[in-house]
Specification:
Elements (H helix, E strand, L loop, with lengths): L3 E9 L3 E6 L2 E7 L1 H7 L5 E10 L4 E6 L2 H10 L7 H10 L2 H9 L3 H4 L7 H11 L10 H12 L1 H16 L4 H15 L5 H13 L1
Parallel strand pairs: 3-5
Antiparallel strand pairs: 1-2, 1-4, 2-3, 4-5
Subcellular location: Cytoplasm
GO molecular function: ATP binding; four-way junction DNA binding; four-way junction helicase activity
Family: Belongs to the RuvA family.
């Protein structure tokens, strides 16, 4: 099992890179997010990897950080999400934003990725909603996941406030993040109106 590569960036393409490790070129498939972070040809690079072996194919997938690799592993446990679709998702959604999208049950954001339609997005949200807390990579993302799962009363007010902001034209993931920040500041007694006002303030910053 190849878990990590460190060497010089030889070349890159739309969804791949070749890393020269002591004269051996390793071909990895990667998200556009990872490819952007590798830099220019000749740069010293280090990537975490996931190796897949099947009867007719051997493939190596590369990730700029462990969080992205862990999300790749989790996404590919969902029926219908293969390696290519998982990389497409990670190309448009960084780990924290993906955590927020799943906590917010935001199908629209997931559908931004090539190969993800409404049905597959709904399956991803349903199957991963109880697993995202272990991969929350920031305090804000972790709190968003916990608040939806552990505080039903607050979640109802939060949900109503999020819906109101979405109706005003904000993206669901943006509204969800703003309202959750507002809920943390205002406390559990905050009503929908207060959350909407505070959420709008967050969005205007």
């Amino acid at each position: 099992m190849i878990a990590k590569l460190s060497g010089l960036l030889d070349s890159t393409g739309l969804d791949w890179a070749i890393i020269d490790v002591n004269g051996v070129g390793y071909l990895i498939s990667a998200s556009t997010r990872t490819l952007r972070r590798l830099g220019s040809n000749g740069s010293a690079v280090s990537v975490h990897t996931e190796m897949w072996v099947s009867e007719d194919k051997m493939a190596l997938y590369g990730f700029a950080d462990i969080n992205e690799r862990d999300w790749f592993r989790l996404l590919t446990t969902v029926q219908g999400v293969g390696a290519r679709v998982a990389l497409n998702i990670l190309s448009v959604l960084a780990p924290d934003r993906l955590t927020s999208a799943i906590a917010a049950q935001d199908k629209t954001t997931l559908c931004e990725a090539d190969g993800v339609g409404p049905k597959l997005a709904a399956r991803i949200l349903n199957e991963l909603k109880d697993k995202v807390a272990t991969l929350a990579t920031s305090p804000v993302a972790a709190t968003q996941v916990q608040s939806t799962a552990a505080q039903p009363a607050v979640s109802t007010a939060v949900g109503d406030a999020v819906s109101a902001l979405v109706n005003l034209g904000y993206k669901r993931i943006e509204a969800f993040t703003a309202v959750n920040k507002a809920a943390q500041s205002l406390g559990g007694e905050a009503d929908v109106s207060a959350l909407i006002r505070a959420g709008l303030k967050e969005l205007s910053q």
